[in-house]
Amino acid sequence: MAKVKSTNANSASAKKVVKKIDDYTSEGVVDHDVFLLPGSDYQVMLAVTVLATIVRLFRIYQPSSVVFDEVHFGGFASKYIKGKFFMDVHPPLAKLLITLAGWLAGFNGDFDFKDIGKDYLEPGVPYVAMRMLPAICGILLVPTMFLTLKAAGCRTVTAALGSCLIIFENGLLTQARLILLDSPLMIMTAFTALAFTSFTNQHEQGPSKAFNPTWWFWLAMTGLGLGATASVKWVGLFTIAWVGSLTILQLWVLLGDVKTVTPRLFTKHLVSRIFCLIIIPITFYMAMFGIHFLCLVNPGDGDGFMSSEFQATLNSKSMQDVPVDVAFGSRVSIRHHNTQGGYLHSHNLMYPTGSKQQQITLYPHKDENNVWLLENQTQPLDIAGQPINGSLAWDSFNPPQYIKDGDTIKLYHLPTHRRLHSHDVRPPVTEADWQNEVSAYGYEGFEGDANDFFRVEIIKSMSDGVDAKQRLRTIQSKFKLVHVMTGCVLFSHKVKLPDWASEQQEVTCAKGGTLPNSVWYIEQNEHPSLGETAEKVNYKNPGFFGKFWELQKVMWHTNAGLVESHAWDSRPDSWPILRRGINFWGKDNRQIYLIGNPIIWWSSTLAVVIFVAFKGLAVLRWQRGFHDYDNAVFKRFDYEIGTMVLGWAFHYFPFYLMQRQLFLHHYFPALYFAIIALCQTYDYVVARIPGIGLRENPIFGRLGALVFLGLSVVAFGLYAPLAYGNPWTQAACNKVKLFDSWDFDCGTFLTEYSQYSGQTLNSNDNVHKTDSPLIPTDAPVAPVQGDGAQKIIAEPNREGMSEAPEQPMVSPPPEIPIAPGHSVLSREEKVEYRDQDGNLLDPEQVKSLEGKVSFKTRYETRTRMVDAAGNEIHVEEAVGVAPPHPDVEGVDSSTVGKVEPEKQDSPNAQREVKADESKEESIKSGSGSAKPASEGNEATGAAN
């Protein structure tokens, strides 16, 4: 009889299951609309939000100086307000919001955020208002976590627990108190997770909820969140991948519901998701760049990354229409097609090695030293058949003689009266056999020699228009300059010359050089015979879409190029176990060090590991025929927590594929999903899984949450001084430094708290200099690290010949305060020569090293304090601070040049250049005739 009852019961159960799978409604799902929560839930949410506000805003004014990446993101705000174009690897949304906060608070953009540790108070920077934007994002993260857990079906106690874990997570706190992008990124990611979780809850309730206002609202908000997340950082692409994979799963389930989902209804589901999850995010993302372009209308230190067409859209970078036809006698500026389009450039300075003739470089700015006059290889003839001498002989020809494909020309540098020249001598930096030196050779009135001849070869596939493929035309023709005597091609690449060439880009003549680096075009063009009626040309306006797409490509390549190691970088395998943090700031015996709360960090990682083990076991049992997935609670546990673990995986594992610099803060989005998974697992264990006794006794669940939260708060308190920059003692620091890889410096702190009360703070003390490719040569700079070469400590200042765009000056190093009872007796200046280890060199050593090593200049101010007896008083140096984070420095450091030094009126003594001599020995010596390069004093000397 019992057996019959059991059979009947099973039959009834089977019928019940069949009834539940009539449509795509998920079993065990109920409505968790966050707009319909009981009032008590909103009260709890408000309480944790108030607590988050207190924790996030506590002493947000400290430190009152620039911290770590505030150098970059605060600096970007200055550039937005000034309208100066910059290039950053991150999209603009968060930077625009930070700028808005500063602008509303009265920030005028004059402060440059150039140095870590630079004081905010004296110049009156509204830094607290700018820090409030990330802080508000960090505060909003707490109620967002609460609502997400409620939307996932968790109890109020669990939702409050998850919110408090966000509050007391030290790493999230540190990021939310500074002018950084990670806090805005986190709130956008969290909002997307909330919206998609809410939409999934509506979707899984089946056809009855489809396309109702709540369903549409959360689907549209998911798309908006995806667009906002991707507009802060490209990490948002991982969020898009997470939502996209789960959306495909939803569509797959819909496709299998042949009873209620008709092809027309499925198409409606598909189109609605395409619109909300693709069209809305892309539109939002592009709109942020539209605002970005509207704000940045002036040239800045980032326009060197962009094409000439892009640069021409900026104020003062646009140029007048210029004659399109290029003729003999045209004065032109020639730009390199690759490497950010620098100009072919020369200046009255000689190579210290090789031929020791005049330097040829690639210079990124418009300058009179970029002007070249194009000559024929032979002089024109007058009506009597006699040659017309002089470089200006072609000016009177009307119509002018156009330069055609295959013509041989000479390039005469008008400012220095020397011609572009090459010979079989190795370049000063790239000493490869297939590279020849390029120099400027000659003097005014000198007719040149055979090594000045270059053949124009127009690259037809890259030139625009039929005429531009037949003869040289401004902007439209892309061409190579082939050296006639050696067959090499004029070439440039991302190699910088040393200080003696102001770190401008190297130009060589390459045998078999790669096409992109051998391509040139003419930008400026004028000729006396080409008047106002001549055909004109200008850059094509790329329009918004052209600028948008170009900037995306530049951001991608720049981001991928950040492969150099950094003092505080780390690899993904160290993040889940919190192996090391990031030193943000250090001054006045305080330190800010980004480190997570170990209790929260390790527990969330453990939750992920537990679910992976559970999933592996569940799959094995399913393969062996067990029916675990017939249980609704088991099925919901597998899907709901699996969804969040999948989010963790999408935001974590892609970093293993990246070779660029990575830091601990890149793990924060994955950490957020891991905390959700931890809370969901806890909620299932104590409140949803039957048969273990915890669901029936909720007091244990509440007590467990309280104990875990208490441990998290204790850990938070132990490491809080590193987040707030508060006073700490060396003993307290050493007690909680669990691993040597946690490399915050306990020696930074004082030994007793009482010592801080009597401490005098110097707001300008120990200002850290960030690396900058545009530091003026007469500004104090940070000490140069040893690179194996001897270095000069100081030498007389040199003024630039070609002025670079206006640059912000670097703050000078602070003077050591004079102690009471002491005074300045004298000041002295001297030049010292030291090697890379700081050892002082005597004059004989310096003389013996000349020509063998390179010397670098370092300007240094040192103060010696002596007492009345003449005894020197040693002053203790301040503790170092965190190095700059070189995410991107604005300009391309591989191509930018410094301000040029003073010209050389006479060339350096030259060594014999046999290659030139053998090719030029047939040319007679004498005034106005060619001379071999070995006679450098005559062939390269300035005519007086």
List the main descriptive attributes of the protein structure presented here:
20 strands, 12-stranded antiparallel sheet, two-stranded antiparallel sheet, 23 helices, 944 residues, disordered N terminus, alpha+beta
Walk me through what this model shows.
- The protein has 944 residues and is of the alpha+beta class.
- Helix content is 37%, strand content 10%.
- It has 23 helices and 20 strands.
- The strands form 5 sheets. Strands 2, 3, 4, 5, 6, 7, 8, 9, 10, 11, 12 and 13 form a 12-stranded antiparallel β-sheet that branches.
- A hairpin with a 7-residue loop joins strand 3 (343-350) and strand 4 (358-363).
- Helix 5 (127-151) packs antiparallel against helix 6 and helix 10 (236-256) packs antiparallel against helix 16.
- The radius of gyration is 35 Å and the shape is elongated.
- The termini are far apart.
- Mean pLDDT is 82; it is low at 1-18, 766-827, 858-863, 874-892 and 905-944.
